[in-house]
From TrEMBL:
InterPro entries: SoxG (IPR007375), TrmE/GcvT-like (IPR027266). This is Sarcosine oxidase subunit gamma. It comes from Alsobacter soli.
Amino acid sequence: MADLATSARRVSGLADFAADTTSIGGVTLADAGPASRFVLRGSEAAAAASGPFGVAIPTTSLRAGEGSGRAALWLGPDEWLLLGAAHETAAIQSALEQAMAGVPHSLVDVSHRQMGIAVEGPGAALALNAAVPLDLSAEAFPAGMCARTIFEKAEIVLWRTGPERFHVEVWRSFAPYVWEILDVVRKENAAAA
């Protein structure tokens, strides 16, 4: 019998939806793919974690820092979501734990709990605003801004990565729900145009 621990493979929660990445109504949806995801807590942890993580952990509210394929998203006064390449999970965790050994903190691997959806195009903000109660205009929510918010009944982390690009972090169980609503909205917007 095969060892389940070594034969198990993570499958995207959007496998049934993400095959078609056609732009509809000025919006393209895509599965952001697997990633390392950690929730870091601790007011002193940001300074200790920035160097080994390779990205300055933002201390300004609602901001994200990124570079070298990694990102740190501010979620609260002492909480951040850290994103990196999927194959780096163990290395990131080890480096951060060593750097923060004497610092009060919590570092939790949430790589399997969450997934990302990329929402892109000139209609991206409008499509997201069908279910997100924030002002997503470029003036109010510029590139580099992130926020923990709601998408209908799902809690998400929304990050504007460019003028017409957003990254949605959502719990795996809610990903199809968020995808389907975005798909319906973009189709309705296309029909109304």
